[in-house]
Amino acid sequence: MNRTEMPKATLAGDRSYAEIRKAWQAAKLHPLWESVIAHKLRDGGPAPNHWQWKRIRPLIDDAMKVASPAAVERRVLTLTDQDADGGTTTNLVTALQILLPGEKARPHRHTMNALRFVIEGNGASTIVDGKDCPMEEGDLVITPGWTWHEHVHLGSAPIIWLDALDAPLHRYLGTDAFEPGPVHDLPNMPDDAAFAFPNIVPEFTDEMPQFSPVFRYPWAAARDAVKAAPKWKDGSRRVRYINPITGGSTMPLMDCYLTQIDRGTETVRFRTTSNAVCLVCEGRGTSRVGEETVSWDTHDVFSLPHGNWITHKANETATLFVVTDRDALRRLDLLKEQCGNEI
User: Fold this and answer.
1) Where is 172: in which H helix or E strand?
2) Tens digit of pLDDT for each residue in 116-155?
3) Closest CA to 256 of 304, 311, 325
4) Which CA distances in Å does 329 have to 174, 253, 311, 325?
């Protein structure tokens, strides 16, 4: 039956279907048969989005002129997809945050996990639960859920980084919460020096949190690691940023990877139920995402929505930082992945 069509017969004494339906509405009930529900085999997924650095970099300059952290808390430009309820893709929101020399962003904490990946500039620091995390180009700094964090810029030029949060998932679940500073009740976190020895981690008296106790992952180490990595099943080289205590993702619900695609390499097609956002750290190439082709260059950002067959091709050796909701779906037993050479 068409969802707007009503049965003409009287169903309950002298009450019409329209009257019965009105009573349902008053009781906050809705007949399922009037809803449009499509049960079908999915083939493909939402379209990708692409933010070209050459286009958005001048717009970042405009943001520096018209907004300041003192007035707006955070000078942030969100990368939005109209079909993702204001997020960048399903379950993830990413943004570009800018700090000028001498500026500060006041401390706060929230239940959402967040990260910062530095695109341009240096000399700033993010302070996470009292630990100072210097920010240089290519560094990853994580701010796990409910950790206090603030930003301070003592450098000489603007710094720009990519923010990524699992905020859409928290909002959907109703678990999003926020607390402004001042900072209080800081935990006693181990120094990063305790994790400086490969394959060896300390034993702790108290139970550690579920997120990584290491908040800063330097670019130099990640770059060398991905260069040395063997090829993954799709033909790229891939390394994962991990929690050194558990070997799992740096933070629950969000996973971070660095992917290298050798010059002239085209990866084997791959698809997944997870969603990802990619930042091009270096190089240029193209990605086929479903029926669309994204031609990307250094510092571009593009999304990889769930359900699409994906291939990447590098015109010159390229490195991509990838943030994804893969760990959230794995925990829910909803992660399904398929590589073209496995069919």
Assistant:
1) helix 167-173
2) 999 999 999 999 999 999 999 999 999 999 999 999 999 9
3) 325
4) 18, 8, 22, 7
| Domain residue ranges of the chain, discontinuous segments joined by + | 50-181+215-342
Asked whether 300 and 50 are in contact (CB, 8 A), the reply is yes
Options 2.60.120.560, 3.90.1150.10, 2.60.120.10, 3.30.830.10; which CATH number does 50-181+215-342 get? 2.60.120.10
Q: Say what the pTM is.
A: 0.90
Q: Which residues contact 40 (CB under 8 A, 6 or more apart)?
A: none
Query: Do 158 and 123 form a contact (C-beta atoms < 8 A)?
Result: no
Residue with tokens 């558990």: 246
Residue tagged 């039956």 (tokens): 1
* β strands within 14-92, DSSP E: 50-51, 76-79
Q: What is the 8-class DSSP label of residue 232?
A: -
* Tokens representing residue 218 in the block: 């330097």
User: With contact defined as beta carbons under 8 Å apart, do 161 and 94 qualify?
Assistant: no
Among 156, 158, 161, 91, which Cα is nearest to 126's? 161
Query: Within 10 A of 102 (CB to CB), how many other CB atoms are there?
Result: 10
Q: Is the per-residue pLDDT at 1 higher than 50?
A: no
> What is the distance between the alpha carbons of residues 221 and 214, in angstroms, rounded to a whole number?
14
Closest CA to 81 of 124, 108, 122, 49: 49
Pairwise CA distance, residues 290 & 293, whole Å: 8
Tokens 């009257």 appear where? 19
